[in-house]
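Researcher: Going back to the complex we discussed earlier. I've cleaned up the inputs and rechecked each line, so this should be the final set. Can you rerun the prediction on the complete assembly and write out the structure?
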Amino acid sequence: MKRWMFFVYGIACYLAFLAVYAWFCAFTGNLFVAKSIDAPVTSSVGAAVAVNLALLLGFGVQHSLMARPAFKRVWTRIVPQPIERSTYVLASCLAVVLLIWQWRPIDAVVWNVENTTARGVLWTLFAIGWLMVPVVSLMINHFDLFGVRQVWCYLRGRECQPLAFRTPWLYSHVRHPLYVAWALTFWATPTMTAGHLLFAIGLTAYMVAAALVEERDLLAHFGQQYAAYQQTVPRYIPKFGKRTSL
Ligand SMILES: C[S@@+](CC[C@H](N)C(=O)[O-])C[C@H]1O[C@@H](n2cnc3c(N)ncnc32)[C@H](O)[C@@H]1O
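Model: Rerun complete. Updated structure for the full complex:
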């Protein structure tokens, strides 16, 4: 019974992620939703900056703190191990929903690209970013990242083995392809408002910090293998034409 409950919980968290991902895309691209990143202004610039920074900080703290091995060691005394990752996914969804719900737009235009071709290129990069996120996650292990593999192993009564270090596809050209994809979704827009710029700068700064902390953990976990990867594969800017296999 407990195995099935955990499995259903894990699947529900995964479905919540899919829904929030689609909503976050619509919010960021001003597509189909009434409340988007560039919706009409509802508060003073000062209040909007303060609230938005608090929302970005809240997301950053939740997303990074809950992913640290030391936090997980303590957390799994409360939340059972098989559903730890699903709970992380659920908490991340709630942090994003709070950000979307409480976001205060600042509509001053920072840049507005009028050339039709250039606008098309920027929209294409935006779409590539949103498609790249799930595709890149499939390159390492999509279902492990979103907690489904863990509840599946538990349902089958098997121990879930930790994933090996891998450098498939884009990972052989750049160490953080997922963060590169997210950066495209935040920055590729033909019309950049001040609120959207704050959002893009805040989340990019978060990813730069998160990559440093993540690399420290990966180095501690995989040792020489990861050190060699750091020596040969660039962090963000891909080196195409030269495929590194470790
Ligand atoms: C949200 S993903 C981000 C991965 C990476 N920073 C990126 O931008 O593509 C974070 C998880 O990926 C795992 N990870 C990162 N690089 C990996 C690799 N080369 N092989 C296996 N797992 C990796 C980390 O251990 C962490 O659990």
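Model: Worth noting: The chain has a mean pLDDT of 94.
Researcher: Good, that matches what I expected from the previous run.
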